[in-house]
User: Which sequence fits this backbone?
């Protein structure tokens, strides 16, 4: 899967992203700052959000692809509670 973009957003706080599925379909998502902090196991600032997303994108994409296959509507939100 290729990342088309990932950027920090202030409101809601976290990273907005887009990537292509294995069959070339684009999906849009957002991962909250709290979820990124849960993945990294530490507090992260705005400047580290996109790096944390890239480091943990496999886990984030897994959540998004599960929602995508279930027919949920975009954008797909990834929250801390869904990472466990």
Assistant:
């Amino acid at each position: 899967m290729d990342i088309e973009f990932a950027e920090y957003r202030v409101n809601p706080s976290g990273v907005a992203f887009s990537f292509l599925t294995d069959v070339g379909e684009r999906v849009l998502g957002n991962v909250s700052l709290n979820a990124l902090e849960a993945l990294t196991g530490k507090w992260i600032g705005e400047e580290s959000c996109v790096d944390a997303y890239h480091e943990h994108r496999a886990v984030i994409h897994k959540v998004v692809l599960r929602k995508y296959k279930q027919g949920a509507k975009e954008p797909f939100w990834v929250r801390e509670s869904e990472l466990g």
Summary: The two ends are 23 Å apart (CA to CA). The first strand starts at residue 3 and ends at 9. The chain is about 35% helix and 30% strand. The mean pLDDT is 91.
